[in-house]
Design goal:
66% of the residues lie in helices and 0% in strands. The chain contains 15 helices and no strands.
Amino acid sequence: MFPDFNRWSLPLLILVIQGFIFACLLLSRYKRKGNTSDLYLSIILITSCYSQICYTLGFMGWYNEFRATKINYFLLDTTFVLAPLIFFYLKSITTSHFKFRTVDWWHFAPILLFIIYRICIFSYDAIQPQFDTVQNGVLKLSIDEPIVLKALEYLSPPYVLLYLAFTFQLFYNYRKKIMQYFSNTFTLELNWILSFLILFTIAFLYNVIQSIVGNYIDLGYQQRWWLNLLVAIITLYFGIKGYFTDTSKLKTLSFSFFPSQDAIPNQISSNEKKPISKVDLDIVKNLMDVHKSYLNPELNLSDLADQAHMSRAQLSEIINSGFGKNFNDFVNEYRVEAFKAMLKENKHEQLSLLGIAQDCGFNSKATFNRVFKKLTNVSPTQYLKS
């Protein structure tokens, strides 16, 4: 009897409803503030929750109660829309003044063609005799399920892998860029997006393995339920983090001024480096040694460039080529040395290690611990004991 709320249907139903609620909240905020990323994330949530409807309704007894339902015509392979949506969501966050161009619609051509195809076979089957008494019509049974859906099982994995590669590349390029611009990057690293991408990849591999196993073993609804539960949880996690994380600051950033060799400064050969004048080096060193600009926890490349009366590109070149470091390492080395100096003055008897770190320009415990261990190979506590 429909609806049947049981241990299989209820978890999926709760997650799907929550997903749709967050999608509505994101759409509402998009209308108020115009953040494109909110629109992308809401569509991701709607698409993922829509893909769970088949199993949710199945466990609620829909197919037993309505045996002639036509829902199978409207269930889509959502990987063909989720993969590019996730890519564009990340791009809308990490690209300043991002705009969706007309040519970008080609990324969604496969799913649009599939929707048109499904409408066509449904229209044909709908005019056939006794269509109202069956679940699937003649084209659905003779073409769609044995041919088209089987073909999609082989086309979907490389398609998703391609977009995952693009998305991971975009993410790590963004990580490199913020290291060249900000001295404290913890709140800008978007670790939750990396966690989501890893979880999405795991769910994707789970789905591929399940499809392969399904060709040899008849997997029932209960065996396939676990994947749907995993996807629903991952999607809800993504929606909650995306809704409560303020990424508006990133939309105003421009990384276009960076020289081409800025990504890995310590790997630039000496004959490729442009000569840096001693005067420019002294100006930058004076700002750090005398004016102690590094004590500002919000210091970024633009701020330091203004203090040095240089362009951001010029200062970036001086730090990368002249000092052989990216901006983040350059500033944080000064902070670590200041921290060490304060320990020698026994400041730890008055302040906690985190308090000293904050006085030296760090703005989070996570950033301080990571940077300190990177530069000294020991933790702050181990250094104090030694």
